[in-house]
Amino acid sequence: MLRARLFLAAAAALAVQAAAAAAGGKYSREANQEAKAAAAAAAAPPAEFRLVKLSQVWAKAQRLHLSAVKLAELHSDLKIQEKDELSWKKLKAEGLDEDGEKEAKLRRNLNVILAKYGMDGKKDAQLGDTNYIKGSLENDVLDDPRLEKLWNKAKSSGKFTEEELDKLWREFRHHKEKVQDYNILLETVSRTEDIHKNMISGLEEEEVPRKHDLLHQKHSELKEKLHSINQGFERLRRVTHQGYDDSSEFEEPRVIDLWDLAKSTNFTEKELESLREELKHFEAKVEKHSHYQKQLEISHQKMRHIEGMGDEEHLSRNKEKTAMLEEKTKELGYKVKKHLQDLSTRISRGLQHNEL
To answer: In the structure, how many helices (H) and strands (E) does the chain have?
Structure first.
């Protein structure tokens, strides 16, 4: 009997030890797995963007194998889009975008970005990074008979050096982007008008003027963009026929565009002089950004060459340099586009003031 009790006690003790060991093994495995997951999360590179949809656009762009310069440009555009969208989320939470006006504008801006980089699902030839595109692809890119006619005239005129043709090509590209932006806004306004007509009958009397004001703002924006497009086309026509004027104040297409718009407002001479100086600083910033873009493209070409040689040490050094150039190009690109956004807003206010 005593033996039986001792046997049972020993068996129970062994069972408890086995259960404890099993439990310890289980928890230990879970702890290890949790530790590994935490380490992996810490080691993973931080997401480029806080908004999921922008991260998806960025991932898609990388799968499309856009050039280094295009990717840096897109990164800057998406960073500004993200900043604007996060600001809008705060406004929405405070109930300051009841009519969805700012949300519609953000959606339109994103559509423009997607179209610009050929990610809108529509057939659109990619614009060249630096030199103008040679061959039949040019007309596919311009996609406008009037622009095609002017461009072909400029190429065959003999009035332009290769460098000037590159500069003119950038102006043609810039003009096409403005037309795309206008067309997207026009489509948005048309949809808003349809919704507006359906809503008017059910609105309170005091709400009707506010809805009319919103539509008036949209039409003012359309009018402003159309004015800029017409001015830009006239400039392209003039330059194509006469060549570049050595006494021209600015060379960068976006700066020329802004200055022409500013001169058509009722800014005072003092305000115009102040704006002229700021535009000069802005143009210098644009030139610096262009310099880094070129260096980045050269560095990428060099890296592809080194990869073929199999020199790991040389490749590692070049990767570090390329990564530095990429960051600098992104940073400058963001600053350029933010500055452009601020200047455009100020000049637009001057144009709207003209109408009052």
So the answer is: 11, 0
pLDDT along the chain (356 residues), means of 10: 52 53 52 54 64 92 86 91 91 77 82 83 51 54 84 88 87 86 79 64 55 70 83 88 78 85 87 93 93 89 75 79 92 93 86 57
- Predicted pLDDT of residue 117: 84
Would you say how long the chain is, in residues? Answer: 356
Beta-carbon-side half-sphere exposure of residue 112 (alpha carbons within 13 Å): 23
Residues 6 or more apart in contact with residue 354 via CB below 8 angstroms: 264, 265, 266
Residue 75, pLDDT score: 92
Give the CA diameter of the chain: 120
State the DSSP H helix or E strand holding residue 334, giving kind and residue range, or none if neither: helix 312-355
Q: Residue 41 is encoded by which pair of tokens?
A: 């999360």
**The pTM is what?**
0.66
Q: How far apart are CA 259 and CA 68, in angstroms?
A: 30
Any idea which residue has 């998406």 for tokens? 78
Alpha-carbon span 356 to 354, nearest angstrom:
6
Separation CA 329–CA 321 (nearest Å): 12
Amino acid at 30: E
Distance of CA 337 to the CA centre of its chain: 9
Buried b (16+ CB within 10 A) or exposed e, 218-233: beebeebbeebbebbb
Burial (CB count within 10 angstroms: exposed 0-12, middle 13-18, buried 19+), residue 338:
middle
Amino acid (1-letter code) at residue 16: V
What pLDDT is stored for residue 32 in this prediction? Answer: 60
CB 122 within 8 A of CB 115: yes
Helices (H), 44-67: 52-63
The pLDDT of residue 281 is 94
pLDDT digits over 153-167, tens only? 888 888 888 888 888
Coil vs helix vs strand at 120: coil
Q: Write out the DSSP string of 192-245.
A: HHHHHHHHHTTS-TTHHHHHHHHHHHHHHHHHHHHHHHHHHHHHHHHHHHH---
Q: What is the DSSP letter of 64?
A: T
